[in-house]
Fold this sequence. Notes:
Layout: E1 3-5, E2 11-17, E3 22-26, H1 40-45, E4 49-54, H2 70-83, E5 89-94, H3 96-108, E6 113-119, H4 138-164, H5 174-185, H6 189-201, H7 205-209, E7 215-220, H8 232-238, E8 243-247, H9 254-257, H10 259-270
Parallel strand pairs: 3-4, 3-5, 5-6, 6-7, 7-8
Antiparallel strand pairs: 1-2, 2-4
Helix pairs in contact: 2-3, 4-5, 4-6
Domain AB hydrolase-1: 22-258
Keywords: Hydrolase
GO molecular function, one term: hydrolase activity
Amino acid sequence: MPFFETADRTRLAYEDYGTGAPIVFAASWALDADMWEYQVPFFVERGYRCVLLDRRGHGRSDRPSGGYDLDTLADDLAALIEHLGLREVTLVGHSTGGAEVARYLARHGEERVARVAFVSAVLPFLMRTEDNPEGAPEELSEAAVGRFLTDRPKWFHDRAQGFFATHLGNDVSPALVGLGVQRCLATSPVATVQIWRASFRADHRAALRAITVPALVVHGAADQSARVEVTGRRTAALVPGCAYKEYPTGGHGIFVTHKDRLNADLLDFIKGETGS
């Protein structure tokens, strides 16, 4: 696995498969590049180059004590794109990865980007404020942090079935559910807490309104981690001219449960065949 070094000398791992037009995948909170195992072969077989980052504190990358704010995470993503000299990139971000993509565009612009896809993204703004009454109170977020600090394995285990919305008939084996929990628990506990807080407090509304490249928003209607009425639908309303796809039985883990539909939707989008 190759590595590169960021401006603050953090060593980050990445994976690079295939040739052709590049797709850069930004992983979910507490997950690493391995989460995209059902997407990479699909796109490589169709002539695309797939680049995946283990963000700091995740996977095989360094686990520094800091740098888990969204500005730094977006700069890490930019450093990877520049390290590889990528242009005409399709950015695909899931959950917090979607927030990183939005912050990347706000900080680094669209010069290297052809299009963006926000999948189950924690956008546009999760925290309740005077001008964001749809958000959740910060006390609710901090209560979750308290549970991480008390029994992090139990928190992930208790939410694993809901993550995949198995109660709606999504066929996910116990082994696969367990693997998801295992991957989350391998993430730095410090990164887990700090990125949770950073994602919850980040306001992306202005950045989303400023997007000019083609954009796709995909969200599950049964997402328990990022409720669709607070995230996906509001994001789609903010991004000019974006295409919006909502999966009625989709939870947060649609990259697994709805992988065939998601891959097809992403492929149509990249080929310019997605309608709004």
